[in-house]
Design brief:
about 160 residues; elongated; mainly alpha; single chain
Length: about 160
Amino acid sequence: MRTNLNVALQAGALLAFVALRFTAPGWFLIILIMTLVGPALLTVPTVLSLTVIRRRVLTPAVTAPFLACAGFLLAGGLLMPDFGDSEDSERAPLSVLLESAGLSAGPTEPLYVLGSLALLGWSVSLVWLGVALALDARRTHRVAGPPHPAWVRPID
């Protein structure tokens, strides 16, 4: 995958996540915004995609975790219900979007399970991304070879 496409994918996934979370605001969104850890963690794949932009092309071993991070972030943003002060205020962005289209939203309990799995998948793919980038950097780091004979002065 080209690195500029990866940056666009990561930034687009982050912006889509934020937009989806604002469709069903609640305490989860407020807690996420008020803590610095939440927004900082969400930007890690985007920042890492900017650090590898000089490579021009990513290897498949690095592309896969980047794609997983973006996919799980979108899935978590779409499926994880948010909660409010009343019992009927538990709504997921998917439910809000379905109701605005005139379709039945269904229960939110399965969405909690799927959203939690997406959060777990995003966390695992974030660790996978860190390991893949570390291994790729180690693989691409070349050890200096012996000097060219023309540069070495003979010992008298």
